[in-house]
């Protein structure tokens, strides 16, 4: 079939809208009509050529919601008409990782996914005979896409696509990092570096679990008002206090250091500050931000010897097929706020505007509605 898609033709070039060819679902796969997709900073990072797994030409996008239109042979868990959220972290429930119950990082199709291919090693997308590669196993910047059955979460049908698409990455990543990865307890002091589409969801998760102080750190003062609305109690602008004084300011505000900190910037210097602002003996720092290929983190080992813990979190530690439908329920029950974080909406033709708004610091989340 033909479908409209935004193609990443090469690094640092605007996405190009084309009618592309899409082959139908093979065994274990489903055809999804994408109804809406968010634009995450990770899409921008890959488009800028910073992703060691970035492949061109490809169809980016990994924060979508849509409807199953066709299923391939052997598919049993979803049927045409089901509403789904594509999962860049699938949940096969059979691999060593899924069975361990120690991680959400299902490994069953990770190798082909990282090469821009479906699990059988081929792409379903092409243009004029040239292969177009999938992205994070999702490619939601296409009106129709093909997904492995294990990489879609079936969700309730009364939830609006233009809001719940954000649960496909940002909402789950931020809230999940608090509740599944860090397991923040009531009364804890929390610091969030980077108050964008992810960091604001960390703040909302911290407020949900009853954190005490929620300190936000961002170089863009325009992010302050929204962060306060979502539960931030203290704001630090490194450009005002001085980048080298951020850690001390947090130690002073928290009587010795944060119980939990979260990096939502992808900046390795910030990641170091996020670790070093943690309380001696027990403070945990969770890396969510994705750093450019080749970057490395560093600190004095003494920081770890004295009890601070450095962790990472992908997709908030959430098990997609199990946890995503529950998060959709939380939204529909009014327990979490998504609407206020979606600051911009546009048709696919204007998707490049979403990247501009992100880089200018003017949006939290932009959503393309097909
Ligand atoms: P965003 O652009 O919406 O937000 C980033 C925020 O960080 C902005 O408010 C920006 O002003 C702030 N910032 C940048 N440099 C800073 C600095 N030096 N100090 C303080 N604040 C700074 O991006 P986003 O969509 O929220 O994504 C944030 C990061 O999380 C990205 O690196 C993205 O790739 C990553 N991410 C990771 C996962 C995961 O599963 N681990 C999931 C989604 C996104
Ligand atoms: N491809 C990159 C790594 C990118 C990365 O870390 N992605 C996160 C999700 S970001 C969503 O916005 C993730 O889930 N990582 C776990 C995984 O298996 O990819 C690289 O460095 O090669
Ligand atoms: Zn994302």
Give a written overview of the molecule.
With 370 residues, the chain is α/β, with parallel strands linked by helices. The protein has 2 domains: 2-168 and 338-369, Alpha-Beta Complex (Quinone Oxidoreductase, Chain A, domain 1); 174-314, 3-Layer(aba) Sandwich (Rossmann fold), CATH 3.40.50.720. The chain has 13 helices and 17 strands. The chain binds nicotinamide-adenine-dinucleotide, ligand AHE and zinc ion. Zinc ion (ZN) binds next to loops.
Short structural description:
The chain is of the alpha/beta class. The chain folds into two domains: 2-168 and 338-369, Quinone Oxidoreductase, Chain A, domain 1, CATH 3.90.180; 174-314, Rossmann fold (3-Layer(aba) Sandwich), CATH 3.40.50.720. Helix content is 26%, strand content 23%.
Question: What's the helix and strand layout?
Answer:
Blueprint lengths: L1 E6 L8 E7 L6 E10 L2 H7 L15 E9 L11 E4 L9 H5 L9 H5 L10 E3 L2 E3 L11 E5 L3 E4 L5 H4 L5 H13 L7 E4 L5 H10 L5 E4 L6 H6 L4 E3 L1 H4 L4 H8 L6 E4 L4 H9 L7 E4 L13 H5 L3 E4 L7 H13 L9 E5 L4 H9 L5 E5 L1
Parallel strand pairs: 10-11, 10-13, 11-12, 13-14, 14-15, 16-17
Antiparallel strand pairs: 1-2, 2-6, 3-4, 3-8, 3-17, 4-5, 5-9, 6-7
Helix pairs in contact: 5-6
The structure holds nicotinamide-adenine-dinucleotide (NAD), ligand AHE and zinc ion.
């Amino acid at each position: 079939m033909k479908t409209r898609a935004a193609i990443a033709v090469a690094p640092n070039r605007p996405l190009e809208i084309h009618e592309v060819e899409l082959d139908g679902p093979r065994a274990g796969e489903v055809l999804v009509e994408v109804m809406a997709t968010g634009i995450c900073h990770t899409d921008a990072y890959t488009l800028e050529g910073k992703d060691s797994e970035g492949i061109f030409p490809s169809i980016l996008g990994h924060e979508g919601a849509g409807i199953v239109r066709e299923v391939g042979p052997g598919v049993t868990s979803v049927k045409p008409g089901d509403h789904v959220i594509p999962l860049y972290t699938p949940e096969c429930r059979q691999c060593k990782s899924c069975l361990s119950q120690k991680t959400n990082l299902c490994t069953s199709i990770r190798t082909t996914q990282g090469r821009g291919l479906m699990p059988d090693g081929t792409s379903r997308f092409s243009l004029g005979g040239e292969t177009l590669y999938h992205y994070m196993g999702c490619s939601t910047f296409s009106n129709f896409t093909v997904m492995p059955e294990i990489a879609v979460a079936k969700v309730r049908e009364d939830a609006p696509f233009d809001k719940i698409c954000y649960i496909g990455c940002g909402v789950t990543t931020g809230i999940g990092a608090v509740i599944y990865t860090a397991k923040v307890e009531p009364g804890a002091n929390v610091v969030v570096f980077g108050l964008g589409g992810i960091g604001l969801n960390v703040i909302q998760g911290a407020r949900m679990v009853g954190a005490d102080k929620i300190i936000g750190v961002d170089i863009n003062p325009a992010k302050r008002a929204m962060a306060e609305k979502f539960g931030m109690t203290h704001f630090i602008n490194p450009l005002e206090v001085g980048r080298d004084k951020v850690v001390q300011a947090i130690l002073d505000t928290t009587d010795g250091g944060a119980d939990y900190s979260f990096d939502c910037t992808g900046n390795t210097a910030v990641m170091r500050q996020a670790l070093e602002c943690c309380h001696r003996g027990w403070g945990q720092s969770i890396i969510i931000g994705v750093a450019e290929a080749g970057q490395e983190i560093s600190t004095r080992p003494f920081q770890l010897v004295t009890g601070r813990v450095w962790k990472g979190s992908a997709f908030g530690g959430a098990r997609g097929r199990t946890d995503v439908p529950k998060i959709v329920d939380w939204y529909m029950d009014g327990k979490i706020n998504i609407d206020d974080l979606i600051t911009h909406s546009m048709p696919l033709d204007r998707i490049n505007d979403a990247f501009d708004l992100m880089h200018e610091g003017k949006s939290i989340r932009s959503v393309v509605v097909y």
